[in-house]
Amino acid sequence: MRPLFAATAIPSPGGLPWWLWLALAGLLGALYYVAECAWWPFAPCRKCEGRGKFQPKERRVWRRCRRCKGSGTRLRFGRRIWNRFAKVRRAAS
Q1: Is residue 2 part of a domain?
Q2: Which of 4, 30, 60, 64 could cross-link to 70 by cystine, CB 3.0-4.6 Å?
Q3: What pLDDT digit, counting tens, does each position of 48-89 carry?
Q4: Judging by beta carbons within 10 Å of its beta carbon (0-12, 13-18, 19+), is residue 70 exposed, middle or buried?
């Protein structure tokens, strides 16, 4: 008869280590973000929450958002990097 806790010290023969699972999850997350930047380059503006206008707290008048210039969208950070690399690549050729 085997003791109950003897198998806990021995790693499972077919399983992957935890750090490899973590690296795989990070890689999948990065690939998802790259695909998201390629298909949806714009995200809602953080200041006006995608409305293109906002109402200051002390006034009743709606103002056009200065950050997004009234469009309600902003360019994602990943897409900004993507555009920069594309610009450098075009200039090199």
Answers
A1: no
A2: 64
A3: 888 888 777 777 788 888 889 889 999 999 999 999 999 999
A4: middle
